[in-house]
Amino acid sequence: MSQILFRHDRLDRAVTFAEYRAQGGFRALETALADLSPDAVQQAVIDSGLRGRGGAGFPTGKKWSFVPRNLPGPRYLICNCDEMEPGTYKDRVLLEHNPHLLVEGMALACYALGVEHAFIFIRRGYELAALNLKSSIAEAHKAGFLGANICGSTFNLDLDVHQSAGRYICGEETALMNALEGIRANPRSKPPFPAVKGLWGQPTVVNNVETLANIPAIVAHGPDWFKALAATPEGAGTKLFCVSGHVQRPLCLELPIGTPLGEIIDSHCGGMRPGSTFKACIPGGASTPYFTRDHWTVPMDFDPVAKAGSRLGTGGIVVFDQTTCMVAATLNLVRFFARESCGWCTPCREGLPFVRHILERIEAGRGDMADIEVLREHVAKLNYAFCALAPGAMGPVEGLLRLFEDEVREHITRGKCPVRLTAKG
C-alpha cells in the first residue's frame, strides 16, 4: 500500500531535513520550477481529483481556478491548521512528524497560484507542530527552497507561521482571515468569495494541511498515479483517519480513500476493546451524523459517506460501544459547539444553547415527547445560520433522531437513561 503523507514517519520524532531530502524531498518543487508552468501544476491538481481534506471536500484544483489571473496586487495562500474539532488530530500528527512535506506542498501551490507570501494559521496549543514548522521553514530558506529566486528561478516565496487565539470559529475560512488581520474572528458574508476578495481585500486561497501535503506527490508521480491510490473507482489518493474511542488501538493512519469503515476498525485498529461491541461512531469529526453497524461496509470517501447519510468530514472517527448513551454523547457535542459559537448570528447564538437545554432535560429524565419535534425543527432551522458552525452542530442531533429515536423516547418514558440502567443490571 502506497503512503504519501506518512512515508517518512519515524513515529517518535520529526523527520529531519536531511532525511526528507535523501528520500526525494523538494524534488517535485525542483522539477516544477525547471520544467512546468504554473498552469501545468494547477492542471495536474485538477486532473488528480484531489478534494479538500479539511472537511468540505471541495475539489482543490477547481478552488484554485477561481483566483482571477489579471487582478493587480498580491494574492495569498493560507494553510488552515486551526484543528479544533473533538476527535480530529490528523494535521497535528502530520506536522509533528513531517513539517517539510507541508512546506514543499505550499511552495508548489504558491507557484501555481502566483503567490509570493503565504501563511500557516495554526491552532494555539499545537506548540510542537508550530516549532517544527518554524524550523522547517528556516531550513528550507537556507537550502534555497524559500526566499528569493527559488532554485535559480524567478519564483519568490515567504512563509509565516501565525498561532491562533484558540477558538473553533477561527477554522472557518473567512473568520480565519479576520483573525489574521487582527480583528474579531467573525465569519464574513459571501460573495465576494475569498478567491476574489480575501485577506486584506486580495485574492486568497485557504487550504487544509493534509490537502497541501498531497501536492508534492501529485506533481512528482502524476494525476493518474494519485487517482489509482484510492480504494474506489471514483476516489482519488489516500486519506488520514484518526480513530479514537472504544477500539483496541486508537491511532492516526493513512489508508486508501474509500477503505470501508469496518476494515478500518477491525483490521487496522484491532477491533473493539475486550467486552465491547460496536454501537455507533462519528465517521468524520464532531459535526457529522452517526454511523451504526448497518454502515460497516460503507467506503470512507466523500460521495459514498454522503449517500449513506453522513459526511466524510475530517476523517476523525470516534467509536462508541454498547455502554454509550447516545443522548449523552450528542449532548456533549452540542455543549462544545454552543460554547464555541462566536455569537454573530441569532440562530447560532440562541439556537445552540436552546438545543443543549432540551438535551440536558431529556438526559436527566425530565424530557417531554414534544421535545423530539422541537429538536427536529431546530435541525432544519439552524441551517439558516450565518456560517456552517450551527448546521454542523446539528449533524449529531439529526443522526440521534434518525438512528436512535427509540433511545431518546426511553429516556422520556422511563425518566432515566436506559443505557445506564442496563449497565447496572
Element layout with pairings:
Blueprint: H1 17-22, H2 27-35, H3 38-48, H4 60-65, E1 76-81, H5 90-97, H6 99-113, E2 117-122, H7 127-142, E3 158-163, H8 173-180, E4 204-208, H9 209-213, H10 215-221, H11 223-228, E5 238-245, E6 251-256, H12 261-268, E7 278-282, H13 302-307, E8 316-321, H14 326-340, H15 346-363, H16 369-381, H17 389-403, H18 405-414, H19 418-423
Parallel strand pairs: 1-2, 1-4, 2-3, 5-8
Antiparallel strand pairs: 5-6, 7-8
TL;DR of this structure?
44% of the residues lie in helices and 11% in strands. With 425 residues, it is α/β, with parallel strands linked by helices.
Distance linking N and C termini: 46 Å
Shape call: globular
The helix/strand series, from N terminus to C terminus, equals HHHHEHHEHEHEHHHEEHEHEHHHHHH
Major beta sheet, specifics?
4 strands, parallel
Strand order, largest beta sheet: 3-2-1-4
Strand content: 5-15%
Uncertain stretches of 5 or more adjacent residues:
none
